[in-house]
């Protein structure tokens, strides 16, 4: 059996594909798996590191601007589209896959379009509640469309009915234990722990809003709180040092540059605050955590807002849009949730109900069924 995966651009596209590919390899050791991506994005590092064969095509996305630079870039993109289709056809012809699976990013476009024209079974997985342009187009021609959340269906016109499979969540998170995690972090059972982060790079608006809150929590001991400023937030660490934090710690508060034990911190937390990327939300749901979501307004199609609203309308999370984010609005929302245990438990339970913990298995089953046709 030969399976071809096409994905790239961001970890949100690549990691789910790797999780599914790893599961297929584990259950079908004889399966031959090949990834197609680009040489200048993180798939060129993550895929080989995971032990999979990797081929590249030359493709880029369009820029939504009429600046001279954007126009020049878009002309080159049109040329790359034709080139990438030829490259895709050669790779597919050489590999002869039984199925081609796309996991998002513009690299999926030429690969899946070529596979459809060649009569090879195809499928795509959409991570977000509001599908990207590439998957919107591909849904009309591929054999199977898989979704993280049902909300995405209304934005698609698939050739065949779409199926909600969920999004793979890291095994260490699924295996995590709240009691053990709190013991590792020295968090008393009768105290609330707030976990906040803006992604690996950090989010300046969130760091700005958190500054006074973290100082207040450190001085009052009201809640335990772990916050990550991100790799771009070094200046915030200096501010906390000036406020009496030693090695990022003061009282019940710990400020880190990066959270490298997210499975432990997430398991121990009572309230999670952060952006609304699909992977983070799947983790929040899997562990049944209450959350305050601050969607990034800078992402394509404003998809994080739609991701967050999928939880909000099910009373499975709360939202503060970045335009409304202040230290006071965030502090008020934290206090509102942590002062009402019944409300907190209801949000937790509703988040847990949204979780699909066997997403990896569901997606793999669909891919393998197409491959056997």
Q: Can you tell me about this structure?
A:
With 373 residues, this protein is α/β, with parallel strands linked by helices. It has a seven-stranded parallel sheet with strand order 3-2-1-4-5-6-7, with helices on both faces. Strands 10-11-9-8-12-13-14 form a seven-stranded mixed sheet, with helices on both faces. Strand 1, helix 1 and strand 2 form a beta-alpha-beta unit. The longest helix has 28 residues.
Which helices and strands, and how do they pair?
Blueprint (H helix, E strand, L loop, with lengths): L1 E5 L4 H17 L4 E6 L5 H7 L3 E4 L11 H28 L3 E4 L5 H10 L4 E5 L6 H6 L5 E4 L15 E2 L6 H4 L3 H7 L8 E5 L6 H17 L3 E5 L5 H9 L6 E2 L2 E4 L5 H7 L2 E4 L3 H10 L2 E4 L9 H10 L5 E2 L7 H12 L2 H14 L4 H13 L2
Parallel strand pairs: 1-2, 1-4, 2-3, 4-5, 5-6, 6-7, 8-9, 8-12, 9-11, 12-13, 13-14
Antiparallel strand pairs: 10-11
Helix pairs in contact: 1-15, 3-4, 7-10, 8-13, 11-14
Spans with pLDDT under 50 lasting ≥5 residues? none
Class from secondary-structure proportions: alpha/beta
Per DSSP, what share of the residues sits in E-state strands of 2 or more residues? 15-25%
Spatial strand order of the main sheet: 3-2-1-4-5-6-7
Helix fraction? 40-55%
Largest sheet: 7 strands, parallel
**Strand/helix succession:** EHEHEHEHEHEEHHEHEHEEHEHEHEHHH
How confident is the prediction overall: mean pLDDT?
A: 92
Distance between the termini: 11 Å
**Shape summary:** elongated
Q: How would you classify the quaternary structure?
A: single chain
Q: How many β strands by DSSP?
A: 14
């Amino acid at each position: 059996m030969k399976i071809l995966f096409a994905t790239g651009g961001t970890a949100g596209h690549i990691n789910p594909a790797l999780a599914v590919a790893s599961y297929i390899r584990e259950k079908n050791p004889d399966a031959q798996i090949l990834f197609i991506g680009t040489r200048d994005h993180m798939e060129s590092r993550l895929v080989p590191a995971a032990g999979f064969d990797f081929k590249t095509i030359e493709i880029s996305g369009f820029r939504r601007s009429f600046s001279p630079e954007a126009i020049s870039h878009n002309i080159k993109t049109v040329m790359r589209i034709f080139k990438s289709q030829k490259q895709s056809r050669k790779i597919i012809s050489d590999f002869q896959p039984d199925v081609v699976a796309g996991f998002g990013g513009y690299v999926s476009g030429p690969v899946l379009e070529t596979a459809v024209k060649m009569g090879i079974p195809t499928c795509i997985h959409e991570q977000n509640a509001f599908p990207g342009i590439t998957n919107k187009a591909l849904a009309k021609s591929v054999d199977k469309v898989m979704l993280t959340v049902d909300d995405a269906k209304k934005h698609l016109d698939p050739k065949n009915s779409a199926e909600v499979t969920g999004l793979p969540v890291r095994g260490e998170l699924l295996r995590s234990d709240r009691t053990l995690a709190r013991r590792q972090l020295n968090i008393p059972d009768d105290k609330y722990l707030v976990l906040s982060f803006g992604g690996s790079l950090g989010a300046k608006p969130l760091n700005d809003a958190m500054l006074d809150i973290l100082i207040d929590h450190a001085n009052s001991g009201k809640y335990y709180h772990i916050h990550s400023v991100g790799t771009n937030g070094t200046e915030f660490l200096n501010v906390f040092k000036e406020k009496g934090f030693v090695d990022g710690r003061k009282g019940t508060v710990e400020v880190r540059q990066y959270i490298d034990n997210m499975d432990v911190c997430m398991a121990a937390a009572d309230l999670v605050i952060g952006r609304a990327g699909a992977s983070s939300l799947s983790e929040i749901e899997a562990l049944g955590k209450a959350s305050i979501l601050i969607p990034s307004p800078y992402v394509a199609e404003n998809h994080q807002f739609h991701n967050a609203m999928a939880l909000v309308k099910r009373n499975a999370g709360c939202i503060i849009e970045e335009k409304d984010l202040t230290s006071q609005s965030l502090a008020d929302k934290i206090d509102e949730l942590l002062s009402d245990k019944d409300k907190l438990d209801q949000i937790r339970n509703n988040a847990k109900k949204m979780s699909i913990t066997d997403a990896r298995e569901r997606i793999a089953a669909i891919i393998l069924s197409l491959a056997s046709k």
